[in-house]
């Protein structure tokens, strides 16, 4: 399956969340990722993300697509400020 | 067409960008939106976003999907902290 994933987590957890997501998906913007995952990888990523997540303040969203999206358009820069945190 | 859109813009422009996006799409997380748009609405939204965007620091991504996604899973909270800015 193809996924788009975004997260919005507290500053203290941003770096760790980024490291987790990078092991599974392509990093395309600050907190936005995309890529193909097997059902097993998807379960593992969800498990790791849920363990780190603060359920009251943080949010992670996974969109499971029926095949890859048709098109992606980017306005502005493609840089990923979060990369600087590592 | 169905769209998922995310932005990462400077703090000064977050409120204005939110107002623009809310006129076209559903707000589902801090800077994440989804919904159906006609080609004309999509062009208008891109035009408004591009006008506000700082091309060197800001980034807006539109994913154009072939129909709606299969599934959406949310870990953590569904709250949208950016709503407080309005």
TrEMBL record, chains A, B:
Positions that bind Mg(2+): 8
UniProt keyword list: Antiviral defense, Endonuclease, Hydrolase, Magnesium, Metal-binding, Nuclease
Superkingdom as given in the UniProt entry: Bacteria
Entry-linked SUPFAM superfamilies: TTP0101/SSO1404-like
Cofactor names: Mg(2+)
Signal peptide annotation: none
Enzyme class (EC, first level): hydrolase
Hydrolase among keywords: yes
Keyword Metal-binding attached: yes
Similarity-based family: Belongs to the CRISPR-associated endoribonuclease Cas2 protein family.
Protein name, as recorded: CRISPR-associated endoribonuclease Cas2
């Amino acid at each position: 399956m193809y996924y788009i994933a975004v997260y919005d987590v507290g500053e203290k957890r941003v770096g760790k969340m980024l490291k987790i997501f990078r092991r599974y998906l392509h990093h395309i913007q600050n907190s936005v990722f995309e890529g193909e995952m097997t059902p097993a990888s998807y379960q593992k990523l969800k498990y790791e993300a849920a363990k780190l997540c603060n359920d009251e303040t943080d949010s992670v969203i996974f969109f499971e697509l029926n095949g890859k999206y048709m098109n992606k358009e980017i306005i502005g820069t493609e840089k990923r400020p979060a990369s600087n945190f590592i």
